[in-house]
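your task:
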Amino acid sequence: MRKNRDAPVDVMGCEKHGDFIGTEKDRRFHILVSLMLSSQTRDQVTDAAMRKLKTDIPGGLTVENLLKLDDGVLGKLIYPVGFWKKKVLYLKRVAEILRDQYDGDIPQDLAGLCMLPGVGPKMAHLCMDIAWGSLTGIGVDTHVHRIANRLGWTPKVTKVPEETRKALEEWMPRDLWREINWLLVGFGQQICLPIGPKCGSCLNATICPYAKGEVKLESPRKKKKLVE
């Protein structure tokens, strides 16, 4: 079901936003920014925002250039990403920290990334992998969290993505950690949808506890909050 790799994440995921024309610092910064924008936001919207940031900021998307940008202008460039007003504040504060504490680069360790405003474990693990090539853990977003619970991949139903990550890492071979995020995110975008999953066309239907009505999960229709 994922052999064609034609889901939005496959062509617009955060690894696609590294600007290889610029410096390695710029590439890593672009990856971090795309991850920060992606929270509670569709890949298509994140991709559009990243394109505007790269082309519309004078001199391009760099730490220094972002800091020179007026908050109102930055907001217009990233709108309508989810929680865009809060993300404007996060981006500015993160850029200040990178300039003052990391010589314009991003932290090279998980703890440093998690200390940045607006950056949580999922973003940090993905950033370590994509920006630094260091596999520190599974990147569990809402898609991975939802599907892992539907498939019964956790010993019990988990409430938050970080709980899901820990449960998955307890049994999943480490050599699968890197691919599980893009695999399940794409699956969640095309087949195992948050609302109205296409169980009828899913090859997992006969072995999936959710498809067989054996697992009842909380409705995703409930009010969202910013998940980092």
Q: What stands out?
A: Residues 36 and 119 are 7 Å apart (CA to CA). The chain is about 50% helix and 0% strand. The first helix runs from residue 8 to 12. The two ends are 28 Å apart (CA to CA).
